[in-house]
Each structure stands twice: as structure tokens, then as C-alpha cells.
Amino acid sequence: MAEIVEVTDPSDPRLRDYVDLRDVQLRKLLESERGVFIAEGEKVVRRALESGHQARSFLMAPRWLDALSDVLATTDAPVYVMSEAAIEGVTGFHVHRGALASLDRRPLMSVEEVLAGARRVVVAEDLVDHTNIGAVFRSAAALGFDAVILSPRCADPLYRRAIKVAMGSVFWLPYARVDDWYAFPDLLRGLGWTSLAMTLAEDARDLREVAASNLGDKVAVMVGSEGDGLSPHWTRSADVRVTVPMAAGIDSLNVAAATAVACWALGAPRSG
Amino acid sequence: MAEIVEVTDPSDPRLRDYVDLRDVQLRKLLESERGVFIAEGEKVVRRALESGHQARSFLMAPRWLDALSDVLATTDAPVYVMSEAAIEGVTGFHVHRGALASLDRRPLMSVEEVLAGARRVVVAEDLVDHTNIGAVFRSAAALGFDAVILSPRCADPLYRRAIKVAMGSVFWLPYARVDDWYAFPDLLRGLGWTSLAMTLAEDARDLREVAASNLGDKVAVMVGSEGDGLSPHWTRSADVRVTVPMAAGIDSLNVAAATAVACWALGAPRSG
């Protein structure tokens, strides 16, 4: 059973995992040094614990204690309780859904481990926006994909904003980070995967046609960065170049929307 | 040809259209009172003018003058030029893509006018998040939908953030706002439209099956708010209740992702 600890001073050192949650640069440094991540909101905190992550502590206003009493009963981590105004003094903003938790990061799986258990994966190249990373996880999870592979420069899926947009799917959908960006397309091919590069290139094949073709058992959908799309190297190295046909004069779908459409079209057949 | 005016004082009254761009409540009031909206970034400013909106003025750092010289040649509105630091003093934040424009809002089209020219529309109910509104416009435009209809409580598509996420598609994709929320499903039906309610209800039909069926000539896809989804009234009143089948244990797609998938699956057949 978690111990309830009333705290009044926003500078209390026991709250140091929760400081300045809107300062992205500071948070990146702090969270990687300490090996922690922050879950925000009752539903997300609940999912973090249910998916087996170890809590270091909680921080919440008194009114959230009841809503979370069942999950707090399963942990020994301290629950720091403060007024909402005082919490804002720690975090630097008004925490809309009241409850926060600081949790231990687990060791990352390797790319090979993640691929070994999967048949449909999204591969994200250099998505630097936490909202987009979260949206990719949420769509992949909802539409029956098994895992996400991240290029070295992709943003952290366990950053607070990404977790929130992903509705916690980052806690249980397996993911890994590519070490060798250059060699990755060959690694995929060597493991028997068919790679699909999502691109606006004129010679790319229509997603409808590709989805109706025989792609083999293991399919990797590669989506590129917000600005420039997939790199020339990954685009050229993929087995198939695929496009979502657009209305005349439109640049492109947002990468999160394109990922949702591709996952829908290419997902393993669903029953029911 | 636009006149170039150097300005140094961030409190100069000629800059009053650009103040405090991050203060959502203030901006809502100010923009509706003055009948203006703000375009941000070279590409979006360009599209606002190309789509025929009248500029009141521009505000930019010197280095953006060249990039926009062709469009500035087409307008008589003044171009206020300041250092990037001084612009930040006006707007309250660092304007990443340098250029801003203040433009006149045009009279809204009526729902009947918008529907008269369309065969595929997205109907958004109570989407209060500007990012989601922008994403819905961008996906609808890219995937061949003809228009967007907004419920009375939807956020403003001409709000800066929505415009940016929509990549300017709000400038040319027709849209209208429903006056009578309660009567709207009947209005749609009376005009010969088939309405599809996107819902998680257990008795809803699978999107794949619905997309393969004969829906008639005019199809309206109704999507609901971020928190609660579509209202019971609109859900019950629709001709067909439709669901995107989800992997076990997943709540739902984000509304922007669900809209992209629905537009992809239900769009008018594309050539090429």
C-alpha cells in the first residue's frame, strides 16, 4: 500500500522528478539521467502501473486519491499530496487531469527482439514531434500493428506529451530504436521482412493496389519525418514505394494521418 | 505593391492585430471583433493570399521579404518589418517561420450552400481542439472530400494553430457552421444525403463493409468530440452507424486519425 505524504513546499527535494514539466530540454536531460518518465492523468497513470512499470512516487491533489485507490494499493511508492496550486508551483503548469506519477524506465528491447515477435510494424524515421510519435503509437496499436521501430533521431515515446497522445499504448506496444540507421533496410530484408516506403514520389504505387497484393507474411511500413518525409536512402532501399493518392494541389497528409491510413489499409486481416 | 514600413516599438498601435498570439481567449475575442485572422509562416501566408483573402498588413523579419516578394507585389497592405526579437515582443513567442499576415475574414457560407456543391463531406461535432480541427481539414482535403460542416461548438478553423495544422486547406476547402444542432440530421436527410455516424457502439457496422456497400451519391461522415465522441442524438439520427474495428483492449483512434481512415475508405473513387 502506497504511503500518503502531505507536502506543502514546492521546492521539497522529494518532488524533484516533477519539476518544470514544460521545459523540454531540461526534462530530456533529467529523465534520461535518472531513468524515469512521467505519466500524467488518472487514466494514463493507471495504465502505466497496469502494464507493469514500477512507480517511484506519485504527486496529486487530494481529490484524485479516491479515483486511484485501487492502483495505489498495489505499490509501495510514496504518494505526495499537495493542493493543485502548489502542484502548479512544482510542474510549472496547471495539470489538467490532476494526477502524476514518476516511473522507472525499463531496458529497451533490441530491434531484433521486437521484430522476432511481430508481423506488422511501423518504422518511423526522424519523427521529432512528440505529438506525432504518440499518434503513431496510438494508431498502430488500435489498427492491429504489433510494434514500432524508431530511427535514432526519433523523439522519445516515453516523454509525457507522447504518452498522453498515445493514450498509454507506448506502455505495452513493443518498440525498439535502430542503432545503425544506414544498415537498417538491409537488416529488415535479411530477416525476411517486406519494407514499404510511404512517399510522395511520382513512381510510387497506389496504396490500394499494394494493399491488395501479396506482400508476404511480415510487413514493415516506413514513414518519414514531418518536414522532408522519408530519407532518400530508406526510400530507395525499401522493397516497395507506396503513396496515398491525394486530391490535386495538396502537399501531403500529416504523418500521423498517413500512418493511420496505411495501418488501416495494410493491417493483418481482422476478424469480426 | 505593398509598402515596406520599418517599425521598432513593439507597442506600436499599427501592430495591434498581432499581439499576444498565444493567449487563446484574448485572440478569440479580438479576431471576431475585428473580423480578422492571422496566417503564420511563409507557406501559409502565401496560400492565404493565393486563395483570394485580403491582407490588412504583414509583420516579418527582414529576411522573409525576399521569399515573399512575389506575393507582396500583389497587395497594397503595409509590410511591417522588425527584428525577430522585437516581433517576439509583440506576439509573445518566437515565430518559427518568420512571417505573419493579418487578413480579413470573409462571410461564412451557409450549410445549404456548402452542401449544394459537394458529394462527400466531413461533419465535425464539438471538436474544441484547434489541432484536431486543422487535422480534419487537411485529411478531408487530401483524401478528396469536398467540404467540412462544423457543429455550433466546434473550434474556429481560422484560428492560427488550426490554419497551420491544416496547411492552409481551410482557405479553400468550403465549410459552414450548423445553426440548429438538433435539426441538422433531418436537414441532411431532407437534402438527399446519407449520414454515417462514426462510433464505437457495439452494433455499428464495420467500416470495410460499409465502404463496399452502395451509399448513394452524397455521403456525410460524422465524427464526434475528443472526449465523448458523437452525441447520442446525432448517433441515433444518422442513417448508418459505422466503426473502425480496433485491436482488443484499445479505446479508440484519435478523432483526427479516425477521420483520415474514414475519408480514405469512403472517399469518391480517385483516378490514377
Describe this structure in words.
Two copies of one chain form a homodimer. Chain A has 272 residues and is α/β, with parallel strands linked by helices. Chain A has helices at 24-34, 42-50, 69-72, 84-91, 111-116, 130-142, 160-165, 184-190, 207-212, 232-237, 255-266, and strands at residues 4-6, 36-40, 55-60, 79-81, 100-104, 120-124, 147-150, 175-177, 194-198, 205-206, 219-223, 240-243. Chain A has two domains: 4-104, 2-Layer Sandwich (60s Ribosomal Protein L30, Chain: A); 111-266, Alpha/beta knot. Chain A is 32% helix and 18% strand. Chain A has a seven-stranded parallel β-sheet, with helices on both faces. In chain A, strands 1-4-3-5-2 form a five-stranded mixed β-sheet. In chain A, helix 6 (130-142) packs parallel to helix 11. The N and C termini of chain A lie far apart (41 Å). The model of chain A has no long low-confidence stretch (mean pLDDT 92). The A-B interface holds A 131, 135, 138-139, 141-144, 165, 167, 169, 206, 244-247, 250-254, 256-258, 260-261, 264-265, 270, 272 and B 131, 135, 138-139, 141-144, 165, 167, 169, 206, 244-247, 250-254, 256-258, 260-261, 264-265, 270, 272.
